[in-house]
Amino acid sequence: MRVLGIETSCDETGVAIYDTEAGLLAEALYSQIDIHAVYGGVVPELASRDHVRKTLPLIHDVLSRAGLEIHDIEGIAYTSGPGLIGALMVGALVGRSLAETLGIPALGVHHMEGHLLAPMLSDEPPTMPFVALLVSGGHTQLIEVQGIGDYTLLGESVDDAAGEAFDKVAKMLYLPYPGGPHVAKKAESGNPDRFDFPRPMVNKPGLNFSFSGLKTYTLTTLQSLGGIHEISEQDVCDIARAFEDAVVDTLIIKCRRALEQTGLKTLVMAGGVSANQRLRASLGPALAPLGASVYYPAPAYCTDNGAMIAYAGAQRLLAGEQDGPLMDLRPRWPLAELRAVSS
Ligand code: ATP
Ligand code: MG
Ligand code: FE
């Protein structure tokens, strides 16, 4: 089945065509980062308007790249939540209208299921069951995955998401939005021994996270050096390194605990923060003593993209799922509410 996927939940317009027989046929991504960077974060109204401008041209683009006509598409998947309501509406309206015109099924897809299944697009995909660490701009969650749609929440952040903490720390350090990659870049030149940041909630039992205290700790450290206008480039790098090390360590400790608790031997990481090189380099060796293997998506499929939505939608459309007559968009939508795909 050839499925067109449309992602418009936040500040990236992503479109892709996934074929359940032949794999990914084409994809296109347009990032609105330049539009929002001047405001230091995503402006919802600007995001919706830009999705309106970009979605159709990107659909034309992927069709021509795949050498297909619109009539070759057999199903349409669009992100129906969680995300910004106005942004979600654009992808949903385009996707559903197209499907209606073509007489093919449409299906709203959970954005985080898209992230979670993105590692399945690799040449050597993980096999279920596994523990998934979802680390993105809006989520930090550990999920037990028994099958597609069979998800149990093991733990999550009680405050900021890891990506959000990266973005806020970047702001404190006067680094551009979105901050994750910029903090990581500075951390490369940072001295790991200069500061010792706390590893939040590791001494408490359970699998929840908290990143807001780490953010405050970063600010306090910055102030102890005289504030952003007084510190040197090396200070910025050292703080970035201490922060990154603390986040990476905390994530690793909780992943280890999740594997021990579930008895599973596979850890799959996904979402924007899983693009972080230090995290990617550290997780495998840290979990190897448990006999566990680690999987993560190619960097382009860590952050938002159309391919993950096309893939997730294709699995469900193939199993016969499709939208009812009403448009059901969910800006907030717990992943564990999804139903398992009947195979
Ligand atoms: P959600 O998926 O939870 O709705 P989102 O779609 O905004 O949120 P993603 O697109 O998955 O999130 O990821 C974006 C986040 O990933 C940002 O917070 C960004 O700073 C972070 N990020 C991207 N690359 C890196 C990196 N190399 N290191 C750390 N963080 C990163
Ligand atoms: Mg984004
Ligand atoms: Fe995302």
The name of the CATH superfamily of the largest domain reads ATPase, nucleotide binding domain
CATH topology of the largest domain: Nucleotidyltransferase, domain 5
Report the end-to-end length measured between terminal Cα atoms.
15 Å
pLDDT < 50 runs, ≥5 residues:
none
Tell me how many strands there are: 10
The helix-strand sequence is EEEHHEHEHEEEHHHHEHEH
Q: Biggest sheet: strands, sense, closure?
A: 5 strands, mixed
On the 0 to 100 scale, the average pLDDT is: 97
Small molecules held by this entry? adenosine-5'-triphosphate, magnesium ion, fe (iii) ion
Total count of domains: 2
Q: Pairing-aware structural class of the strands and helices?
A: alpha/beta
Strand content: 15-25%
CATH architecture of the largest domain: 2-Layer Sandwich
Q: Cα-atom Rg, whole angstroms? A: 20 Å
- Provide the helix percentage: 40-55%
How many helical stretches? 10
InterPro entries: ATPase_NBD, Gcp-like_dom, KAE1/TsaD, Peptidase_M22_CS, TsaD
Protein name: tRNA N6-adenosine threonylcarbamoyltransferase
Family: Belongs to the KAE1 / TsaD family.
GO molecular function: iron ion binding; tRNA N(6)-L-threonylcarbamoyladenine synthase activity
